[in-house]
Amino acid sequence: MTTPTAAPDSYDQSYYQRTGENRYKPTVQAQGAWHPDEQHFSPLGGLIVHAIDRYRADRGRVGGGTAGQAGDGLALARISFDILGLIALEEFEVTVETVRPGRTIELVEATVVIGERAVVRARAWFLAELDTTAVAGTHDPRLPGPEEFEPWEMSGLWGGGYISSIDVRHRATAPGRATAWIASRAELVAGETSSPHASFVALVDTANGIAARQDPTEWMFPNTDLTIHFHRRPEGRWTGLDTGVSFGPAGHGVTSTVLHDERGPVGRAEQILTVRPQSVS
Question: What is the pTM of this model?
Answer without folding.
Answer: 0.91
